[in-house]
């Protein structure tokens, strides 16, 4: 208090200063205006005794006190400096992050602000000494004159992402120390990197790295582009609640206890149990209600979402998504050729992928058009790239051809059911189809020019067999595999017709799986990505830099519960996307007839070079069908269905057909930045385990705080 009072006195008028002097007398504060912050050095023993209960300010031992008074206002950011300002006086602010003495009368420094860095030249010995005394990373105010540089060599640490004012330097005429830095645990400006643990604990220092700072600026620019584009498309930005009711619709939730809302204040709740909110996993239900309300037919928000998932690679318990919903979307799409045609096995895979994959044969085309327009806008403004066609591929085809529901299609190594092997005769095909009505053997070829780069020990898999092709087994390799031995294949077909036959030096991979694909990967699909990464790492394969966007459509509407949803499913069917996804129109009768495994959903994911960047669906807008899905397919209990009563009522009261999508903003920005992890584009990310090293969360809550919520602490079993 004393230091605050005395520090304020300097800027007060005379009359106010006299009143402050009387106040000093009453509280025993010494009258030392010339050293307003150095209280301890001048306190007498009597004063110290009388004021022992008052706070005492302790100055820095090095005497480098922060500046609190007037200073010249900033005139420019460093990035604004150019040769056109030659000879002009400027006032800058930033961090000193390098010092160099050229001679007794010439010193060089580097000043960094949030926009760029610039070389400072100091010819005044007194100012030079002051700057040399400032610790690195101290915050300073610099006054100087812009000078054109004689050479463009960069001074001090450089960066590929933080620009440097190469054209000019600033001749220093004055400096003010705003805040001296203590010795840092690490210096972001240096080439050697501190450990990940240290950098995570001091994330605010790690953000001084120009790469991370540039990522955050780019993220801000992307968010601005998104808002502007969607507003231009007549979307309304609407905020929806974050504190919702727990519902069995997806992954595990974070629950938030409340002490102010008692059970008696909750409608239809007569229990004495503690009450909880659940943090939203997504704004799914609120945005559907918005469309049902008629207040808007085009909604969006950049929404914070929360999922209490186990630690996995590159996931965060709190994340950001670009969320949108549209009313009056179409419920059916273009009618294209089915991928079940028998001619597939006799056609070049490459031709098939190029000519017949681009049919959007379901509803939600309006959503597709809006999202593609948004992505094109982002890539044009951020990367200067005009994007090509966004292609479409049904889920089952993606799993059959690439072994993944998010395939990287830049690399033509295909995983295919054995029935598509080109050397099969008609008799062989009949044997395969007869044997594999429920399960299929899938195969994949690694050509000899790539096979020589692979370490087979690294690729060893108990579920996959590798057969090396030699001169003597080109036509008999199938006899070396337990997957194919029992079929008695002749391999008399002409593989040259499709270019798919094996040659000496190739490796053929075999694995068995269910005929109807499940989940996100097959065994060969995982192996394909592993080989792709290794070939790229060794320089044996160069992938295209052109972004390759792909829509994956027609996912199974229901699947057996995965690990995330097992606690909800109890062995029952679970929604592949969420329980509000509409079935394909052609599969509606199968759904009503109970043939759940045959039903495809109007669900679509957007994939970029093997990474899913967003997903969405057309929603069920029929209350009876929605309740049927919850009650008879998902087997939800009546009290679980009651948690969706508001949604069911909204559908009954007149909801238009609607659909939407969510784009993962974190991953989208990471791709644009070329970042290896989404943590590099989030200001204060959590660790893979979900902890926050900066804010030390999560943490244990005191017992008396828990009691306010009607809770008590117990050790986990």
TrEMBL record:
Family: Belongs to the class-II aminoacyl-tRNA synthetase family. Type 1 subfamily.
Biased amino acid composition, Low complexity: 41-52
GO CC terms in record: mitochondrion
Gene3D superfamilies from the UniProt entry: Bira Bifunctional Protein, Domain 2, GAD-like domain, Nucleic acid-binding proteins
Gene Ontology BP annotations: aspartyl-tRNA aminoacylation
Organism: Kockovaella imperatae
UniProt entry keywords in alphabetical sequence: Aminoacyl-tRNA synthetase, ATP-binding, Ligase, Nucleotide-binding, Protein biosynthesis
Matches recorded under Pfam families: tRNA-synt_2 (PF00152), tRNA_anti-codon (PF01336)
SUPFAM superfamilies noted in UniProt: Class II aaRS and biotin synthetases, Nucleic acid-binding proteins
Biased composition (Basic and acidic residues): 58-67
Domain (Aminoacyl-transfer RNA synthetases class-II family profile) ranges: 216-685
Database matches in InterPro entries: Aa-tRNA-synt_II (IPR004364), aa-tRNA-synth_II (IPR006195), aa-tRNA-synth_II/BPL/LPL (IPR045864), Asp-tRNA-ligase_1 (IPR004524), Asp-tRNA-ligase_1_N (IPR047089), Asp/Asn-tRNA-synth_IIb (IPR002312), GAD-like_sf (IPR004115), NA-bd_OB-fold (IPR012340)
UniProt name for this protein: Putative mitochondrial aspartyl-tRNA synthetase
Annotated GO MF terms: aspartate-tRNA ligase activity; ATP binding; nucleic acid binding
Region (Disordered): 36-71
